[in-house]
Design brief:
Elements (H helix, E strand, L loop, with lengths): L3 H19 L8 H7 L4 H12 L3 H19 L4 H7 L5 H12 L3 H8 L38 E5 L2 E9 L6 H14 L7 E6 L12 E8 L10 E5 L2 E9 L5 H16 L8 E5 L12 E7 L2
Antiparallel strand pairs: 1-6, 2-4, 2-5, 3-4, 3-7, 6-8, 7-8
Length: 302
């Protein structure tokens, strides 16, 4: 059992390192200096940091640089080459490869996408991480495993019929599919019978390339609903699901998923069951402030 005072020491040490990393994105990361500041050997520092943050110092540094680059692309006219150099890449090509791996789009494609009106689905530049640390926000490390209490309940869900529009690509771009779904559903008058708006996820982001991830934007409708030809019909199986509620902007959904799968599930005594994982949107950005958004996350369990 870890003593509270020992845990506090490690929390403070890692938080100091996180703050140093987030405030020094224009500099090469110095692992030896970070370890010395934490009063740990480089080897122990690496293991403690990764265990508490869910990523290594180098991975965090690289991710924050990419998030900053993505923010610059969607909010400024700074040339891509300049952004690439600022992100620590020596060539435009190496930056583009790294950026495409993270966002499943080239820097120019992401910039173009940000300039396309998409209603109430703003482009998300945050990359999912258990640490909860993102560019542009306070670099406060999320509580470590064992110190983080996630409110999860087991719900018995009925079988649900879902009118869906398929989406291929990073899960954080599914808003594009919801915009098209809304247009199609509006013309077909489906919202009158719709009981919930859901997003269904079919692939594991750790084993499937971002550009190939399959998901569906959907509306839960009565089983006998006639659907327009543009929409598919999917079924969410009845059964037991672990449920937690994400409160706040959609930009943090990836973090909540990461915590639920990386912290709660291994300690729950449960295993992922047959079926799909999905999100249920209890309100929308159309009439709700970002901090007041509520999204239920469901994972089938056995």
């Amino acid at each position: 059992m870890v003593k509270p005072e020992t845990l506090s020491f490690y929390e403070r040490a890692v938080q100091r390192a996180v703050t140093a990393i987030a405030s020094s994105l224009d500099e090469a990361i110095d692992l030896v200096a970070l370890a010395k500041q934490a009063a740990l050997s480089p080897l122990h520092f690496h293991h403690v940091f990764r265990g508490m943050a869910g990523e290594t110092p180098v991975e965090m540094h690289r991710r924050l640089r990419l998030e900053r680059a993505a923010m610059q692309l969607v909010t400024s006219e700074t040339p891509v080459t300049t952004i690439a150099f600022d992100a620590g890449y020596e060539t435009h090509e190496s930056f583009t490869r790294a950026f495409r791996k993270a966002y499943a789009a080239s820097p120019s494609e992401l910039r173009a996408r940000a300039r396309t009106p998409n209603g109430c689905t703003p482009l998300r530049v945050e990359l999912a991480t258990r640490s909860g640390v993102h560019f542009g926000s306070d670099p406060v490390l999320a509580p470590p495993p064992g110190g983080f209490v996630m409110n999860v309940t087991i719900e018995n869900m009925p079988e649900m019929t879902v009118a869906t529009l398929s989406h291929i690509g990073p899960y954080n771009t599914i808003g594009e599919a919801f915009q098209r779904l809304g247009e199609i559903a509006g013309r077909a008058d489906l919202f009158k019978s719709c009981s919930m708006m859901v997003a269904i996820y079919h692939d594991d982001p750790d084993s499937v390339p971002l550009a190939e991830l399959r998901s569906s934007a959907g509306l839960v409708v009565p089983a006998d609903t006639e659907l327009p030809s543009e929409l598919g019909r999917e079924t969410i199986k009845a059964g037991a699901y672990a449920k937690t509620t994400h409160e706040g902007p959609y930009t943090g959904l990836g973090d909540t998923w990461a915590r639920m799968m990386g912290e709660w599930l291994p300690r729950s005594g449960k295993r992922v069951g047959e079926g799909v994982s999905f999100e249920v949107y209890r309100n929308t950005p159309m009439d709700t402030k970002p901090d007041d958004l509520r999204t239920d996350i469901f994972i089938p369990v056995s």
